[in-house]
Design goal:
mainly alpha, 54% helix
Length: 96
């Protein structure tokens, strides 16, 4: 039994050619976005009271054997209160 050969001209050949081109383009797009992904950067050093709070927190954590870093505490402070010592969170379930 003979196997049919794929046509090299005509609509089917063109469709196959463009389908393979689309697959290659999709693969290239994935590779480019994966390679070009930005890397995370360290949090900037805080100024004034925030810097003092972070350093005091790290000192206490170190004495108690609690792991942590300047960057992680800085990110939490900025996310929770933007460094505002008077910030109040009334939407949290713990605030009630």
């Amino acid at each position: 039994m003979q196997r049919p050969t794929m046509p090299t001209t005509g609509r089917l050949a063109k469709a196959r050619k463009y389908a393979l081109g689309g697959i290659a383009a999709a693969g290239l797009a994935i590779a480019v976005t994966t390679v070009a992904a930005p890397s995370a950067s360290a949090a900037p050093r805080a100024h004034g009271n925030v810097d003092i709070w972070i350093k005091k927190s790290l000192a206490v954590m170190h004495k108690k054997g609690i792991p942590g870093s300047y960057d992680s505490i800085y990110r939490n402070l900025m996310r929770e209160s933007a460094g505002n010592p008077h910030a109040i969170n009334n939407w949290d379930s713990n605030a009630k």
